[in-house]
Design goal:
Helix 1 packs antiparallel against helix 3. The chain contains six helices and 15 strands. It is α/β, with parallel strands linked by helices.
Length: about 260
Amino acid sequence: MSSKNIVDEGDLILLVFDEKRRWLVKVEKDKEFHTHKGVIKLNDVIGKTYGSSVKSSTGAKFRVFKPLPRDYILKMRRITQIIYPKDIGLILLYSGIGPGWKVVEAGTGSGALTVVLAYYVRPDGHIYTYEVREEFQKLAIKNIKNAALEKYVTFKLKDISEGIDERNVDAVILDMATPWLVVPHAYEALKEGGSFVSYSPTIEQVQKTVFSLLKTGFFDIITIECFTRRILVREGKTRPATSMISHTGYLTFARKIT
């Protein structure tokens, strides 16, 4: 995810036909991408500016965009449930994660959150991500490489409930079944005032985690839930969409105190 605005060979682009039909495509010389609206020669994309268009063999127009973090998340290959953009945005805002931060994450899953964390800690920060299942980690590594963010991530095949190797980190973020077991390890790993974040689908997990945070020595503890609803804007008939992403998980935030 660089700041350049010209498509080069080997880049991953977002190819958009309309609101629903959009693809992440790797631009390879002399290759073709087949769609319902004809074939696109990827040679025709090389050298174009992002935001420009390319035509298929049938004359259909497709737009070429630089993928945003949300595009990688929603279009990446995955074998696990991911944390949705609506929740990731709150994780960033409530934890304060930014350039130069050193962050521990568990579990990696398919790497959706890892992609966003790596994107925001650049250029001097780093992500240490723990995963217990090797097949998940292998897929996550591929997804991170597709996003060209691998140099900002260290992958660890380890159960984080057995301990955290890093010290003096800025944040610890957990997306796992038993986050309360990691709370004491997170306290040891975090710098003073560091941020703790836990994402859990059930309220029972939240309760155990909060009680552990209180017992261990965390402060400023808050749990929130986020709902988003898209609005369909049409001339004379603007209204909310009939479907929405409602409950995905509860987010618990805390800060280390001494």
